[in-house]
Amino acid sequence: MSEAPRDIENLIELMAKLPGLGPRSARRAVLHLIRKRGLLLAPLADSLHQVAISARECLNCGNIGVTEICEICESEKRANGVLCVVEDVSDLWAMERGGAFKGRYHVLGGTLSALDAVGPDDLHIPKLVDRIKAEHITEVILALNATVDGQTTAHYIADQIEGLEVTLTSLAQGVPIGGELDYLDDGTISAALKARKTF
User: Tell me: the pLDDT tens digits for 113-148?
Assistant: First the structure.
């Protein structure tokens, strides 16, 4: 069985490093791109080149955009005193897709994790405290994942902003809309019970 030329193998190896793609799925993706080179491969290469040049991290919140300060941080309509703290840019984008949140964001860049040797100095927590003071934040919403590391990070942030005149809230957790109890894990059911409300 002959191998693909070296430049194609290099592309497959790079694609395999993407989240959700292993060597086999990367090989299939590359073959598909080559077969559709005019329709997909050339435009993809141009787009990757453009993004490599223009993409940058917002100096204020950590969002990814094409300017040093992102559109969300620039918007005066978003300066309502509410700051939503997320683990990663993908979480920020997920919140924006829903369109329900109209404040500003702060991207931590991960969560505290003893196992992965991620400590407070590796995250943007000191910058968060500075923003709360400088931007006259009245409410901080912790939109962190319901994992052990996410909850540890939430408790650490709560300790760091204790004494500041700010309301600290977190996203509700529990049964999703359309969810059936039989398909939910024990942790989700437990969280839903603790967060129950008057009907």
Answer: 988 899 888 999 999 999 999 999 999 999 998 888
Q: Is 113 helix (H, G, I), strand (E, B) or coil?
A: strand
DSSP characters over 56-78 = EE-TTT--EESSSS-HHHH-GGG
Angle between helices 148-160 and 125-134 (to 10 degrees): 40
CB 137 within 8 A of CB 84: no
- Identify the residue whose tokens are 């994942």: 145
Rounded CA-CA distance 57/63 in Å is: 6
For residue 123, give every residue at least 6 positions away whose Cβ sits within 8 Å of its Cβ, in sequence order, or none.
108, 109, 110, 111, 112, 153
- 107, with CB counted inside 10 A (0-12, 13-18, 19+), is buried
What does the block give as tokens for 161? Answer: 């902003």
Backbone angles phi, psi at 29, to 5 degrees: -65, -45
CA distance 92 to 109: 11
Closest C-alpha among 63, 70, 52 to residue 93: 63
* CA pair distance 60, 174, nearest whole angstrom: 32
Could you tell me the two tokens for 148?
Answer: 């052990």
Chain position carrying tokens 């008057």: 198
Query: Considering the entire predicted model, what is its pTM?
Result: 0.83
Taking Cα atoms as reference points, which of 180, 76, 79, 56 lies closest to residue 134? 79
